[in-house]
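Standup, Tuesday
Yesterday: got the pipeline producing C-alpha cells again.
Today: sanity-check two examples.
Blockers: none.

Example 1:
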Amino acid sequence: MRLTMFFLLALLVVSVTATPPTDLRYKDRNQPLGVRIRSLMYQMTLEEKIMQMVQIDKHQANAELMRRYSIGSLISGPGASPNEDHRATPEQWVDMVNEYQRGSLASRLGIPMLYSIDSVHGHNSLYKATLFPHNVGLGCTRDPDLVRRIGAATALETRATGIPFVFAPCIAVCRDPRWGRCYESYGEETSLVRQMTEIIRGLQGVDPANSLPGVPYIGRDKVVGCAKHYVGDGGTTRGIDENNTVADWNEMMRIHMPAYFDSVAKGVSTIMVSYSSWNGVKMHANRTLITNFLKGTLRFRGFVISDWNGVDRMTTPWGAQYPVSLMTAINAGIDMIMAPPNATEFLRLMKSHVENNRIPMSRIDDAVRRVLRVKFVAGLFEQPLTDYNLIPEIANQRHKDLAREAVRKSLVLLKNGNDNNNPLIPLPKKSSRILVAGSHANNIGLQCGGWTIDWQGSSSSNLTSGTTILSAISQTIDPSTQVTYIENPDVETLTRDNNQYSYAVVVVGEPPYAEQYGDNTNLTIPEPGLSTMNNVCSRIRCVVVLISGRPLVIEPYLHHIEALVAAWLPGPEGQGVADVLYGDYGFTGKLSRTWFRRVDQLPMNVGDSHYDPLFAYGFGLTTNPVA
C-alpha cells in the first residue's frame, strides 16, 4: 500500500511539472504587471517557486539543469569568463549567456533566468571593456552627473554581452581606510555618498515621474542595479572586513542608511545584504532591518539578495549549521540566495522548511513575487536572448573619453611646490630631460586595482588594454623632451645623473586587492615604491603620483616631495593623469576621505572630536589650464 501511494504521488508530481501553462497572460506584455505576476505564480509549483529564489555559480550550471529546475539566476563569479578565458570576446559572452537562457526558456513555464556579474567600475570582467576609476576617486569629482553617465556606459557595455544584472553600486560609507573595500566607497561622508546614488539612474534609466516610490524601473538597454551592502558594511570595528558595526539606531540611520533612502526612491531593483553584523547580529539574519525597515518603512518593492555564500558565512566555521542559517535568512526577508553549496540540496532544505512550517508559504510567495517583478520590469519575458547588435558600443570612443574625463576630475592635488610662489604643476612640456620612475608608472594592472578581469585584479602590465601613465606622459610632452624611465633607480645612478633631469615623475602605490585581502593595519607605501620615492625625491624635483585605494602614510616623507597627487585607482585611461599634470586641464578634485597623519588616529572622520588631519576632507588644490 505504501509503495502504491508513493508511486501515485510520484506520478502526480511528474504530471504537474510536465503540464504546460494554461493561463498565458503572463506572457502578454499588454497585461498589467500585477496580472502577469499573479497569472504566473498561480501556475507555479512549490519547487518552481523555491528555485526562483536561488542564484547559482555558472560553473555549477548547464542548459539541462536550467530547464529541469527553472533556476532563477546565474552569476559569473570572479574570473568566471567563457571557457575560463579572461580574453574571451563579447560574442563568446553572448553565446554563453544565451545557452543558459535557452535552457531556462525550455522549462515548463519558460521563466527566463537573470544572469548577473560584478560591473563595479565598468564591465570589469570583460577584456578591453571601458573601465572607470574606482568609487573612491569618483567621490572626489563631486559630480553626480558624471557618475550617472558612467552608469549608463557600464549598463550599455554589460548588456551588450547579454548580461542584464550588475552588482553595483556600492553605497557603503567607509569610516576606516584600513578596510579592504574602502576604495569601493564614494567617501566617508553620508551626503556625498547620497549624491553618488545618481549612478542608479545611469545603470537602470531615469524612473518616470509617475512611478511609485520603491518600485523598480529598468529602461531599454539598461541593467538591473543592486545597491550594496545593506547596511553598515563601511563602519566595522577597526575596518575589518565582514566584522561587527557597533552603532546605536540613530547613528545607523544618520550615517549608513540614508543612501538607501535615495536608492529606493530612484527605483533600484535589488539590494544585497552585507556579510557584516550590527551590534553582534548578522545582517543576513536581521529581520528588523530587512523586512520591517527596508520592505516595510521604505516600501522597497525589488528583491533582496544575499552576498556570495552569505548564508554559509552566518556561522563559524562557515556552513556549520546551514539548514538553520538558511531558514533564518529567508525568514529575515532575503528573497534570493547567492551561490549556495548545492542547488538541489537548497531545494530539498527549502521544501522541508516549508512543509514543516518553519518558513511560511507567505514568505515564499513574497520572495517570488519580488523576483518576478524585477524580471518583468527588465523586459526579460519579451527579450530573453541577446544578439550582437550592441557589441560595437563596447569601448567606443565616447566611453573612453568619458573614462578619461573621470580620471582627470578624480585626481586630487595635495601639494604643489614648497611655497605658494613656486608651483611645480603644471609641468612644462618642453624640457631637456625628465625621469619617470616607480612600479606603477608603466603597468595597466596596477592602475586598475582589484575587481579588474579577476576578483583580486592583477599586477600584469597587459591585463587589459589602455594607456599607462608613462605612455601618456610620452605622448603629451614636446617631442624634443627626452624621457628616461627607470622603474626603481638605485642611489648610485641617481647621484650620478641627478643634474641631468629637469624634474621627475614618480608613480608608486598599492598592489591590487579586493575585500578581506585588502585589510591593512599599517597603510604604508609598499616597497620598493617607498624607497624609490625617497631616493628620487631627495635628489630631484619631483611629482609623486600615488596610486592607491585609500590614503596612505605620507607625512614623514612630504618634505622631500615637491608636488603630490592622489590618483586613487584611475583605471586604464592614463592619459587623464597627463592631462592635468601638464596643464591641458586644471586640477579640480576634492578629497572624499580624510588624509590622516598616523594610523593610530584611525578611525578619524570629518566632525570627530579628535579630528587632526594631514589633509582635511574636501581639501584639494586647484590649477588653471595652460592657455
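Example 2:
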Amino acid sequence: MQLHKPIFQTHLLPQPSSQLFAPHKPHLPSISLCFHKATSTTPKTTTPESSTSSSCILTQTEKRTKQGHSPSSSGSCNSSFNSKMATMVAIDPHVVWTFLAYLLGFLLLSLLRRRNYGNATAKDKGKVKNKNKTSENHVSEECLKSSGTDVIIVGAGVAGAALAHTLGKEGRRVRVIERDLTEPDRIVGELLQPGGYLKLIDLGLEDCVEEIDAQRVLGYALFKDGKNTTLSYPLEQFHSDVAGRSFHNGRFIQRLREKAATLPNVQLEQGTVTSLLEENGIIKGVQYKTKDGQELQAHAPLTIVCDGCFSNLRRTLCKPQVEVPSCFVGLILENCNLPFANHGHVILADPSPILFYQISSTEVRCLVDVPGQKVPPIANGAMANYLKNVVAPQLPPELHDPFISAIDKGNIRTMPNRSMPANPQPTPGALLMGDAFNMRHPLTGGGMTVALSDIVILRDLLQPLRDINDAPSLCNYLESFYTLRKPVSSTINTLAGALYKVFSASPDQARKEMRQACFDYLSLGGVCSTGPVALLSGLNPRPLSLVLHFFAVAIYGVGRLLLPFPSPKRIWIGVRLIWGAAGIIFPIIKAEGVRQMFFPATIPAYHRAPPAN
C-alpha cells in the first residue's frame, strides 16, 4: 500500500551564472503545496536541478517568477526553478480545513451575537415598559414626593416664616402649610431682644420690623417697693440701629410671611396638618386638611415642624415635658407714657412680676403674671376685680389710671406660660423648631431670639448640602444642631426660669432676701448690671457667665445679711439663701443638660461633618 506523506520542505535552487551578476531583481517567495510519494524506505539522493518525484501545485507568485526563464527537464513538475531562488512550503490539509472551520464559526458567532443583542435590547425595552407599568405607583409616588419640594414647613409663625425665607433664599424649594394665614392676634411674642435683632440682620429680615410701627427698646426699668433702677443694653460696640424691638406680634408675622412669599421657590398654603407620614421609621411628609376640608398629602425629603406652643405633632419627634408655671393676663393701655421711654418696665409685685412695654406709638402692652394654671374668670367680673384690687395698687402712679381705663374697656385676654426643655428624639426626615421644640417663661422675652438663632444654625448646617434626600445620613448629621444651639438657648432658658422664680414673691425669708439681693445687685451698675443684661438680651450667650452672676447675687445677699454684725439667725438665713439659689438653678441646668451646656465640644455630634453627596 502506497502512503502519501505530507512534509514541509524548502528547496533553495541555485541561479545560473549569467544571473549572478545581473542587476538585482526582487523575487517573491514561491510557495507550493506538494504531496510526495513514499516509494521506498531507502532515502534517495537529490540533485540541485531536480527534486523527488512529486506532484506540485504552483502558486500565483511562482507563475509570475517563471516568466522569462527556461523550463527544466527533470521531474514531472515544471523546472522553472532552475533559474531562480524559490521557496517551497508544504502545508497539511487539516490546517486548511481547520482554518476554514474557524472562519465559518467566527461568522456564525458574529451573526448569533448580533441577533442576541437585538433580542436583549428589545427585552430590556420591554422590561423598562413593564417596570414603568408595574411600578407606576412607585414612580408616581416619587414624583409626588418631590413635587418640586425640598422642605415642608409646618406653621408660618415667626420661626416658620423666617425659616421659609431663609431656606428659600438658599435655593431650597419650600412649601409652608399654615393653619391660618390671616394676621394673628396674640399677647406674647411682641418683644425682640437685641441679640434676636442681630440674627434678624444675619438672615436679611431686618426690614420686617419696618412699617409696623415697631418701637426701639434700649433696656429695662425695674420697680420694687417704690424704688426703681434702669438697666441699659450694652450696645456701645454695635451699630446705632442695633437695639431691641417691640411691636404687634401679628404685624411682624405678616411681614415675615410677605417676605417669604416674594421668593418664587417658596409656596405658602393654608391647611391644618393632622399627622406626619412615616414609612420604615422615616418621615416622608405630612397629611393635612385644606380650608375646604379636603384631605391631602405633601411629600418632601425634610419636614420641619414649627407649629408653635400648642403643637400636636411634637410627640412624634420629642419627649415633651411641658410645665405651666403661670398665666399672663394681657391688656393694652392707650395713650400712655411710660416712666422711662424706650425701656421695658418690670414691676416686682406680689405675687409675681408685671410687665409693661410699648408695642406701637400709641399703645402699651401690659402683662400681669398670675401664678398657677387657673386664673380668675373673666366673664363674671372676677378678673377685673382682681386686677383693680390686687394689681393696680402696686403700679407706679404714672401707670395706675391708664391701667384702670384698660380694665374698664373689657379687652382682657389670657395666655398660659409654658416651659419645656428641649428633649429631641432624632427622627430621619423631620426636625422640630420654635416653640414646638423648646419653650421658656416669657418674662425675659427670649423666645424669638432663640428661634432666630436656631434658624441661623440650621441654615449654616444645610448650606454645604446639595442633596438632602438621604434621610438617615441627614438625621445623623443634624444631631449637631441640638448641640450647637445650646450656648444661646440654654443661657436664655436658664435665665428666664431662674429670674421668674427669683422675682416672684414668697413667704420664705430666704427667698425674700434673694429677691431683694437681686434688685440691689442689678442696681450697683457696671458689670453687675451690664453682665446680666447682656445675658438676657442674647448679646453674650455664655452659660458659665450666667452661673457666676447668679451665685454672685446669692453671695451678695449673704453679705448683706452678715453685715455689719452677723447673728445666728442671719447666718442660717444666709445658708438657706445659698441652698435656695442652688435649688433654683441646678434643676434648670440639669434639664438643659450639663454636658451640652458647659462642655458641648465633648459631644461627638458637635464635630460631625456633613455627609458626602
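Quick observation on example 2: The first strand starts at residue 4 and ends at 5. Confidence is low (pLDDT under 50) at residues 1-90, 116-146.
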